[in-house]
Amino acid sequence: HLATSLPLPSERHHLRPRIDLIVFMIDIKSKYSLKNVQTSLAHVDASFFLGKVCFLVTGVGRVNACSIETNAICKLGEAYCSPVLYCELELEGIRLATAQRLLRMLQICAGHIPGVSALSFVSLMRNADDD
Amino acid sequence: DPQKTAFLLRKAWTLYSVTPLYRFRRGRLREYARLLSAFIAAEKQKGLAVEVGVELDIKVALSSLADLRGSEQDQAAVLVQLSSRSQASSRNSEDKLVWSGWFCSMFGDDLSENVPKDFTCLPLFLTHGAESYTSMVGTWFQKTFDCCFRRLAISPLNLSWMVAMWAGCKLDRAASAVELVFSVPRLSQPLDISYTIHPEDAKALWDTVQKTPGEISQEEVDVFMDCLYAHFHRHFKIYLSAAKLVKVSTAVASAHCDGVVKILHSQYMPGVLMLLTELAISQIQ
């Protein structure tokens, strides 16, 4: 399901299936996309931040078109205890690899992989910080 | 000395980053000028001539701009000038300047500190004139000093630093307006939005944002830009933050994302060059 911002319209709430993973897309060429994500985050229930949220930063191939400081994005990932993935959608190989990673994450979040749950993402991230 | 560097003002300079020059000797500038002149003549013989029709004799001059440097570790700037003397009018033997370029380092200690002996660090190269001459001069320098030139593009992030810094500069005489030009992506017809702000308003805004005079942080630049975006949105319902900032213009200097700058005020030239040197060094490293 694709949405340009949150919250999702309440009219269709009863028809919506369970949400297993929220991917917030930030275009590094657009400051507006970061602001949009920041306001949308406020509408997400706290339980999602236990591994069911991730940030996808696109457009990283073009360093010279950068409108957002990467430090700001790192801080966002840290503040919300969620992983940050970087990709360049214009390159087919990277687009495919990123899609596969997201699919894998979704499988884990939906509980399809026995023995691994969404909480693993959170604990993996915390260990990296402590080091 | 503002008199000597006045010729650098109000010209559109195309920016390049240059890796350190190997075995560049300041005492041999006249010899280098002769060699470069011969190289250009040879290139023209090969049919890579610039002008069609009139045969032009290109004279090359290399000089040192002793005052154009920042710290003690900086190398003084080196100026290259190409002039033509048309053979047709031998009576009027005035040389016409057709191309100029200069190498510069303004507080480029980050680079010069970590470089072995025998290397001269002049990371910023600015050119004004036909691209074909730039290409010939660049090729000769690359072959002679084993260095590498790359166009220096300026990202929207860096352009917003520039407009915040320069809009906040104190000017003794009436300043020209602060202008930001945005390009709107993904439209069938390209659309440019020009946002012009009265210079006193821009300076007043920056003065309320900046906490410590002489120091600028990313947060302060973000707040400054967010105020400008919010003001524009309030009036026109357009999110400029979703567009690409391509050019900024102030009374101090103007800069375009393709890597073209114009320095307009001699007092702030060192500051502008310091920022550009920093960009050039980060592109090299």
Automatic annotation (TrEMBL), chain A:
Coiled coil: none annotated. Its main location: nucleus. It holds the Pfam family CENP-M. GO terms for cellular component: chromosome, centromeric region; nucleus. The gene is Cenpm. This is Centromere protein M. InterPro entries: Centromere_Cenp-M, P-loop_NTPase. Keywords: Centromere, Chromosome, Nucleus. It is found in: Chromosome, Centromere; Nucleus.
Automatic annotation (TrEMBL), chain B:
Its main location: nucleus. The keyword Nucleus applies. Belongs to the CENP-L/IML3 family. Pfam families: CENP-L (PF13092). This is Centromere protein L. Keywords: Centromere, Chromosome, Nucleus. It is found in: Chromosome, Centromere; Nucleus. Coiled coil: none annotated. InterPro entries: CENP-L. It comes from Picathartes gymnocephalus (White-necked rockfowl). One of its GO terms (cellular component) is nucleus.
